[in-house]
Amino acid sequence: MTDIAKAAPYYLIRGGTPLHGEVTVSGAKNAVTKMTIASLLTEEPCTLRNVPLIGDLYLTLSLCQEMGSEVTLDEQEHLLSIRTPAIHSTSVSATIGGLNRMAILTVGPLLHRCGEADIPLPGGDRIGARPIDFHLNGLQQMGATIVELGGRYYMSAPRGLHGATIRLPFPSVMATENFLITASLARGVTIIENAALEPEIIDLIKFLQKMGAIIEQKVDRRIVIEGVQRLRGARHTLLSDRNEAVSLAIAAYLTKGDIYLRGAQQDTLLTFLNTLSKMGLHFEVEDEGIRFIGDDRPPPPIALETDVHPGFMTDWQQPFTILLTQADGISVVHETIYEDRFGYTHALKTMGAHIGLYTKCLGEVPCRFREKQYLHSCVVRGPTPLSAARLDIPDIRAGCSYILAALCAEGTSEVHGVEHIERGYERLDEKLRALGAQLEVIHPSAEDDSLDALA
Fold first, then answer.
1. What are the pLDDT digits (tens) for 71-99?
2. Annotated binding residues for UDP-N-acetyl-alpha-D-glucosamine
3. The pTM is what?
4. Active site residues
5. Cross-referenced Pfam families, in alphabetical order (predicted)?
């Protein structure tokens, strides 16, 4: 282990404690970063409420500040004010822009306001290939000239961007968001065919509409944007994070606990709640949140397939797979969104889980990976007692699944790579401790003083 790895904080989690109590769900990770980028379309100030205090937000704010944004973040009130009176730089540094995929979303605002953009190749979680061809092809249709050189994309639009009919080969969330942002100021009408329609996208549309954009959702996954000459500042309250809600809900069932999630929104969780009902798991929907109630009975097995919204979200697959290790029988999970999202299951098998991966499509949802050699189907046999282990987090959602596994495992687990968790979840460790979890953040420099905490 390198000195850097040794210096990184990690979690010690003793499993087996039922979680009880109430926590508030944070604002949506997958909405706040996109709205922050959308604020670059105007010189006027924008205000976002219910913003989650996560690593990806801070990274995106650094990206915007690098270009000239003035930022005020009230962490206590979860209130973000951002204003970009002028773009100081059209070049996104690899130091910031190469760490996630936000840089590609800056292209539209930069081309509209400056006529050029220079961005690095994108980074992000290791969950399979996520090329930006959809983005590049659509931007070219709208009038952008693109040159790739030395690991960077150089883009220009000296005559400005215009509307186009963009047919997405797959309803990509980020590509849809990119074209919504870019088309809002493009000349003429842009039609996005086969668009993604996730709740976070609808929330972005609401924000853009408040800024003055004209956007209509049509039937058959079509979104029509009529470009306007200018956009104004706006104020918006983000929807809650449905991924955090699902993770904490599953923690209630895994630990046989009882958790009330204030701010959890039924309309964004319909498919997840339907799946719980099919398994006979108890929950109660209230006006201000949702209560999830576990018991001693192992849930029945289920056949599950991820799909684009309104299907079962791919980000829910990992935490749900942990729940299926405790189900009474054989469950099947068919992943149709990403081809390489079961890598985390190797660590679960070291904890005692019975999991097999297969290249065949074990489901009925049309799948891009059919007849290809991707391990994108998973068979889980339960119920299996899990044993504590050292776990190294590869990405945000897998990391949360490791925490869930540790919460229901026998013994004390070490969970390393918690920076991935902090990128996508706001103070998850504090929320879990508030619910009674035996979780300690270990800082290696003070390790000798902290190891007794879970003894």
1. 999 999 999 999 999 999 999 988 877 66
2. 101, 315, 337
3. 0.93
4. 125
5. EPSP_synthase
